[in-house]
């Protein structure tokens, strides 16, 4: 690559580059890429046939210079939109006025707690709408590196907040709904935007005890991989036709994921049928550089880039491809056709986004700032927060009758939270309604004191205003917990207990004997058992990162304007849990130095288990569908084969959805999240304690009324994964239960021979790297000085 | 305590409060405290005899309100001055003009590398001079919470940079020199300032694998404690008459240090004779709160404050004493005389600082801003950096002949370091001369590129300017390493390797084949073996945190204006070391999961061992003193007994200092640090590989000239510590060696019976806490609501 071109890349890196190619008057106007009647594949192929090899390599990075001589504009691939259009290299908020903000929804961990797939689709549709509006103003690209769909396995993980929770089934369902909204259906003519499922795979550790993400090798059994780490990605690729994947920093079983053909080719593309020409894989940022250092998996920089390209990593976030593919090509480490494959995927994707098509024929190209943060979007951001907020303890104080309250003490480092409410990967919000703001809208005196100077503040120097506020109030709300100062990208948590300072302050506040609520904020859970056990603390709410209207959502729940119905999407472990299992241990089942992970396998007693969440009313449940005592496996399979379903695990178990009637027997109208768990003894021991197999949120069930959940139950959700990773339907005793304290239960058996629903591609026997024997020799050899000159001058 | 008084504390907390009491016209003018002819003890006793119990308790915190009715002004105890007067609650820099800056010396880790005790005294004298000037302008108090003298045991420790290194003997000698300069001698009539030795004891962990400093219990053997963790503190207390100690956040063997009478009374005060009435102990900030939570050592808040006060913690950094001593007093948990003891220590200390004395009789009260950052101080800051910078590799390129260079590429995130050069605990410096600044003073073209966006930046996006700079230059300097983003208070390191991104960039730069130097910056060491092994990297310098003139110091060494003579004050371990030993393991000797710690015990091969440091010339050594083949232990002790030395371990071994002649046999004038090590087989096995027993820096030894080191060798430095902690002189074979690759060696034996030089006070057999059985009950009981009312209303 020439020095001039590299310079071009650099210069473009800092600019927004969402110009569209001119297919009317530009140099490409006679190329097939501009022919809307041609197939995307032939259009992309025609385009890149015009590229020189240097031009091809130049366009393998996240900051693509395009090809000026062809009128192909530069393109920035790196946009973020985790819970709203977010600040990132390709997103450019204006300083004021139009396009100075976008709707900021709650973090996924709180939206996961809503257990409401329709909500997720709605949120994602707003995000993609706003993204298109920004794109039309030349303020963003068309692909977004969201969602983060790694299961939140270890409570320490700093990025767990970015995920919907710990359960693989839940994540699979959530992400299916999300991609629908982001991309605009599962096979639209024009995609709204391209979503990117990340980080494939096994990425859930930032930094722990000398391990860090750029270098970590996640050692996992095939059974755990298929049962836990893969399902959300299978949902993305096989079931939701997502446009892009991101490979991760870590290695899996010895191979950095971006260089692993087993993951990227055998599983992702072949086994999951993710073979459309417009589907591409991008590396996490400079994960390809990491293949060389610090992974030391490749023996040279050229080996690293060639291994990644050959494995199927089509775009390099960073410049490593652009820097080192030339020498790798000279060394014959990859074929030009492999490079072409990567570029065809990229441009096919842009073609599917209408990049080369007349704007007037595309509805999304008509969006503008009037489509951003509409009243509907604002209402949805509020609704998402309300639906997720989870009531963990209530001695009857809540809902709070405002007529009985004249003054509220609002205390803690979340009391006046604004940006804190966004968590990470955020954009510019239209507003941030803090808890303090919300309290001040009520007709009561609010006595506010921050007290705690932040997570890292163990001192008592600012405690005096706390006592003054408490003294002056007839009601106390403590809003604390954790935030991005202790859980974030690059930073895993070192404690899952409340800090001593916060716990001491809460304890002293409780001594006043006044009615008191604690808001436990942040993404990861904190062991709240001291609060549960304190009789002077009346109520405990978990609020996650509730987004732009978070304070209002919290206070509307507190005052009973809305009834809570969120459920914990993760286990709240005792504080000692993190001393019982290394963060590096990828096993789900209990074993030496591992008490088991997630609600399925943890063999201790959770403080609050997955699915916990109280209401302001009471419910009973009844299963309305008839369930046979016994089912024959071969009969089930025969029915499945007779259907049009391509994948047996997606076939329905019952003739129609399982109907569960939920009766509100209390006095408050309320949503209810129907959680259907499966338990029993079937398949390979040990057995999980239970497994979530279906869920549905029911809305506003009035007192003395009934809501009905229609739960689709697939053969796959009855199946177990064997040690080879095959998904198998086993004979045995099964039970279905509604809710975590089962309100109703039904038993049945499967009889007959085990049947494989999905045969897993086995990993290659030798998964070693190309090998670097220590670092001693790595600087010399394998990179001739003439090549260096060619690359660098 | 009344609410009003607490309010007063709060209001004063944000103000500077260094007013002096008015002994001429104020209410105290007839009190003995104003009688300069009375003893400090009687003066302090007279003062506090006027206090009510509430007034006494009010003045137990770091922010003391004084007693307005007595004309006793408020006083802020919390000032910092780690390597210059530093920003802290009691230090108030002005925005511009006078008092807007103070001299900023290198971090102690680099000053430790100078191995020059006289330098340390000089630096400390400047610091105390500037502190007094600021105090006279009412911009700081008179006591400073420095030095941090915990040995830098684990390479991960984020605050290791604040210490002079890993060797207990070195630290003891260094701190003795430091206190001389800070306090103005060891028993002056008026102290310049009060120094505070911290953190007593066993504090060298911030956060590691679920352990954090507020909660960590450092389990250590008595032998390790006495041999390694205690000597610097013994030097402070017994040998240097330091004015103050700080107890630490952690516990030692089950007891939080601030509540431990064994540490604070039996060892510190009784065994070390630290019993002057003006010597006080302050808690680390809210370490007393931590005794309750998160240590859970005390069963109530009142138990926590009473335990600390009774143990001998005289000042509470924070407000916990002020908040909870009233209730503890009502519960009869301490006597008023114990409170008086704490206050007498505080005010005696202020009396010794001339706080109550006429200013005209005190020279330090005459200092003003003309005494701040004088040319001499600037020169000393430069000298301290130059003396510490350590040459680790040199293939002959250095010193760099500027006549052969027309252009230099200066690359890396330290290349334009400014505030980075100060490390932590810094103030406002007069200037910060970066490496880039220094390079630009030379008559060469400087091509600068930052390249790496910081420690957390794994991306290659800014690498292009790096190649351009390298391409355009005939000489390459890479300035990188670590900084406060990865080592700091609260943050231990998770890797002691170079980041993959930096290592890759260095490697690619080396491929140019141009002359290349790497500057390894930061306090903790980084495994530089890949650089050592790369033949294209000509030289490697370690520059620590070099302070306000750090860039100039580095370039003066590079260009040969000054010859390097610094020595590593810590071991540079291989990157794998941190996987071999938990950070929580306090043992020095090798054992299971512990390859041994420090150069004395590490059983692997260091990348660079303690004491490493090259020169631009060559030296030989000769021992001039005559050493007998054999010494009789009883004879040595008899001589010692005949001397006036109170402590046998301080008695000299030889009749006079050991004379070592150092010959410069090369062609460059250079300093030389004489390091005298002891080895042999004597005392309890296992034996350390060697032990530093004396050192002296010699200055500017001309080519073909000889410098002479006069090394005092004490009986204590020949002794070993047994398992009970006794310091014993043992019969056996001894050898003295000069330098780490011994240039000369001499053997001798000790004969006779072992003799105890220092009998260690044994720990109490039961060191359990007052006990909290889990957290369940901690909120209720032990704190009656009437007491709460008294405290809080």
From TrEMBL, chains A, B:
It catalyses: Hydrolysis of (1->4)-beta-D-xylans, to remove successive D-xylose residues from the non-reducing termini. Belongs to the glycosyl hydrolase 3 family. This is xylan 1,4-beta-xylosidase. It comes from the Eukaryota. Keywords: Carbohydrate metabolism, Glycoprotein, Glycosidase, Hydrolase, Polysaccharide degradation, Secreted, Signal, Xylan degradation. GO terms for biological process: arabinan catabolic process; xylan catabolic process. Pathway: Glycan degradation; xylan degradation. Gene3D superfamilies: Glycoside hydrolase family 3 C-terminal domain (3.40.50.1700), Glycoside hydrolase, family 3, N-terminal domain (3.20.20.300), Immunoglobulins (2.60.40.10). GO terms for molecular function: alpha-L-arabinofuranosidase activity; xylan 1,4-beta-xylosidase activity. It comes from Glonium stellatum. Its main location: secreted. GO terms for cellular component: extracellular region. Its EC number is 3.2.1.37. InterPro entries: BXL, Fn3-like, GH, Glyco_hydro_3_C, Glyco_hydro_3_C_sf, Glyco_hydro_3_N, Glyco_hydro_3_N_sf, Ig-like_fold. Residues 672-742 form the Fibronectin type III-like domain. It is found in: Secreted. Residues 1-18 form the signal peptide.
């Amino acid at each position: 690559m020439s020095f001039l071109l590299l310079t071009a890349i650099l210069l473009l890196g800092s600019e927004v580059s969402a110009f569209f190619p001119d297919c009317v008057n530009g140099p490409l106007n006679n190329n097939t890429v501009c022919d809307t009647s041609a197939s995307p594949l032939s259009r992309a192929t025609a385009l890149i046939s015009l590229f020189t090899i240097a031009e091809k390599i130049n366009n393998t990075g996240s900051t693509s210079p395009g090809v000026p001589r062809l009128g192909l504009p530069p393109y920035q691939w790196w946009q973020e939109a985790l819970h709203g259009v977010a600040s990132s290299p390709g997103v450019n908020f204006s300083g004021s006025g139009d396009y100075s903000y976008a709707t900021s929804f709650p973090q996924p961990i709180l939206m996961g707690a809503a257990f409401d797939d329709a909500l997720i689709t709605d949120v994602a549709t707003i995000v993609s709408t706003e993204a298109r509006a920004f794109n039309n103003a030349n303020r963003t690209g068309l692909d977004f590196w969201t969602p983060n769909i790694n299961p939140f396995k270890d409570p320490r993980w700093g990025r767990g907040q970015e995920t919907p929770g710990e359960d693989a089934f839940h994540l699979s369902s959530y992400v299916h709904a999300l991609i629908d909204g982001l991309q605009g259906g599962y096979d639209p003519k024009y995609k709204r935007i391209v979503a990117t499922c990340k980080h494939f795979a096994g990425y859930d550790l930032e930094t722990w005890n000398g391990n860090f993400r750029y270098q970590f090798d996640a050692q996992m059994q095939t059974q755990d991989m298929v049962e836990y780490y893969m399902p959300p990605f299978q949902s993305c690729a096989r079931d939701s036709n997502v446009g892009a994947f991101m490979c991760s920093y870590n290695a899996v079983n010895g191979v950095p994921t971006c260089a692993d053909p087993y993951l990227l080719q055998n599983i992702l593309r072949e086994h999951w049928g993710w073979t459309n020409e417009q589907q591409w894989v991008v590396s996490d940022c400079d994960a390809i550089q990491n293949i060389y250092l610090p992974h030391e998996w490749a023996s040279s920089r050229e080996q690293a880039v060639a291994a990644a390209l050959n494995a199927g990593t089509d775009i390099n976030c960073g410049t490593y491809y652009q820097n080192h593919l030339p020498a790798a090509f000279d060394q014959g480490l990859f074929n030009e056709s492999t490079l072409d494959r990567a570029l065809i995927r990229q441009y096919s994707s842009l073609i599917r986004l209408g990049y080369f098509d007349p704007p007037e024929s595309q509805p999304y190209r008509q969006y503008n700032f009037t489509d951003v943060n509409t009243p509907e979007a604002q209402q949805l951001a509020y609704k998402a927060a309300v639906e997720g907020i989870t009531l963990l303890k209530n001695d009857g104080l809540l809902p709070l009758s405002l007529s009985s309250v004249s003054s509220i003490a609002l205390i803690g480092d979340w009391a006046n939270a604004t940006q804190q409410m966004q968590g990470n990967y955020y954009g510019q919000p239209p507003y941030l309604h803090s808890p303090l703001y919300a309290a001040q809208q009520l007709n009561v005196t609010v006595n506010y004191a921050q007290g705690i100077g932040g997570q890292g503040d163990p001192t008592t120097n600012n405690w005096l205003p706390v006592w003054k506020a408490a003294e002056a109030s007839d009601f106390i709300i403590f809003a604390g917990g954790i935030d991005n100062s202790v859980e974030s990208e690059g930073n895993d948590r070192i404690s899952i207990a409340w800090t001593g300072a916060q716990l001491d302050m809460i304890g002293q506040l409780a001594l006043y004997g006044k009615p008191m609520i604690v808001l436990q904020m942040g993404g990861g859970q904190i062991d709240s058992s001291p609060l549960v056990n304190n009789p002077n603390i009346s109520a405990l709410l978990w609020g996650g990162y509730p987004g732009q209207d978070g304070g209002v959502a919290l206070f509307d729940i507190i005052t009973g304007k809305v009834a809570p119905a969120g459920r914990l999407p993760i286990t709240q472990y005792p504080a000692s849990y993190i001393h019982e299992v290394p963060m590096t241990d990828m096993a789900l089942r209990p074993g030496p130095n591992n008490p088991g992970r997630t609600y399925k396998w943890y063999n201790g007693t959770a403080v609050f288990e997955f699915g916990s969440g109280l209401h302001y009313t009471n419910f009973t449940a009844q299963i309305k569908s008839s369930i046979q005592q016994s089912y024959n496996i071969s009969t089930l399979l025969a029915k499945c084969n007779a259907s049009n379903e391509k994948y047996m695990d997606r076939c329905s178990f019952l003739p129609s959805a399982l109907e569960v009637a939920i009766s509100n027997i209390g006095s408050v109208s309320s949503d209810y999240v129907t959680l259907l768990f499966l338990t029993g003894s079937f398949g390979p021991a040990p057995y999980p304690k239970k497994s979530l197999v279906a869920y549905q949120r029911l809305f506003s069930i009035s007192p003395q009324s009934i809501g009905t959940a229609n739960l689709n139950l697939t053969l796959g959700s009855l199946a177990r994964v064997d040690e080879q990773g095959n998904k198998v339907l086993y004979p045995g005793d099964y039970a279905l239960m509604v809710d975590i304290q089962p309100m109703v239960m039904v038993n049945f058996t499967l009889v007959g021979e085990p049947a494989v629903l999905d045969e897993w591609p086995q990993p290659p026997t030798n998964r070693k790297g190309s090998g670097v024997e220590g670092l001693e020799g790595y600087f010399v050899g394998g990179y001739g000085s003439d090549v260096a000159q060619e690359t660098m001058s």
